[in-house]
Amino acid sequence: SPQSLDLQRPIDKRVYKGTQPTCHDFNQFTAGAETLALLVGFSAGQVQYLDLAKKDSASRLFNEERLIDKSKVTLVKWLPDTERLFLASHASGHLYLYDSEQPCGATTPQYSLVTQGEGFRVFSCKSKTPRNPLLKWAVGSGPLNEFAFSPDGRSLACVSQDGVLRVFHFSSMLLQGMMRSYFGGLLCVCWSPDGRYVVTGGEDDLVTVWSFAEGRVVARGHGHKSWVNAVAFDPFTPRLPEGGDGDGDAPEDPPSVTYRFGSAGQDTQFCLWDLTEDVLDPRPPPPRARSDAPSSIPRSLSRSNSLPQPGGGPQISPRVPPALSSGRFATLTLREPPEKEHKRYHSLGNISRGGGGG
């Protein structure tokens, strides 16, 4: 009860020497009065399991001898609606699936290839008895900076230092879609509450909205003056019903806001972005005359920096991404270079003036 809590003192406090905590995650599925499972990742590669409701009696350390991975843990996350399984991503570019009730081996794990595809490979651990890690994913090149599960828990979005967003069907380990950044590595990723859109941020100083169903970039937002470290959707922004105003007439007012998300950057700026229907569902472009047979890479893919989902859906005609508003200081456009050139080496102004932008 609140009366028994001393609000002047922490519930638990731990001091670590030789390594620093880099990430953590509570198990919301099992959280209750009897258990409060917490994962903590560290800069040296270990992952600690704590149960704050049971104190020191329920503490376990995974990758303690750093035989699985010696690089920094970039993110730990419980699998949605599970009691024991969790994922840990590392700066090595690897993603590991753990069972919190299984031990780690006393020797370096040996792996066998399960499946592979464009920019990724999945391995299982060779062992006569169950041991961690259960699976090892090698995703992209360079550090795996962040990952996020879709709201339904079926898909996993990963962003890497190679500047690629990859979306997997988690249980089947199949690649569902890809998107490349405008420039540099991607640092953060999140899903819209309904799972229709994925937003990323990174070293191009942009926020990018990618349609999961269409497999294409919907919009890019320019407002930050440095790398974008975090993005998150507002789960309370209502999605207004489609159609008229309730009287059977088509609405005459401008489209209402349907989504909102926030982004935080190393420029110490926090931006709020509104995704409106005119951005998400723009009018189709005018018909164009059919050209010769396309090359191995269609122009629509090279212009949008994204790959569609497998299945041979309709191709989107090349066009400049639409505008995205976030107040009076942030806009979305790739047609004109920024007014002031960034002092950092990775600057959109330099790219645009050098002809490298698209």
TrEMBL record:
Annotated SUPFAM superfamilies: WD40 repeat-like (SSF50978)
Coiled-coil portions: none
Cleavable signal peptide: none
SMART domains reported for this sequence: WD40 (SM00320)
The keyword Protein biosynthesis is annotated on this UniProt entry: no
A Pfam family reported for this protein in Swiss-Prot or TrEMBL: WD40
WD repeats: 179-220
Residue spans of biased composition, Low complexity class: 292-309
Disordered: annotated span: 238-257, 277-358
The entry's keywords: Repeat, WD repeat
Protein name: DMWD protein
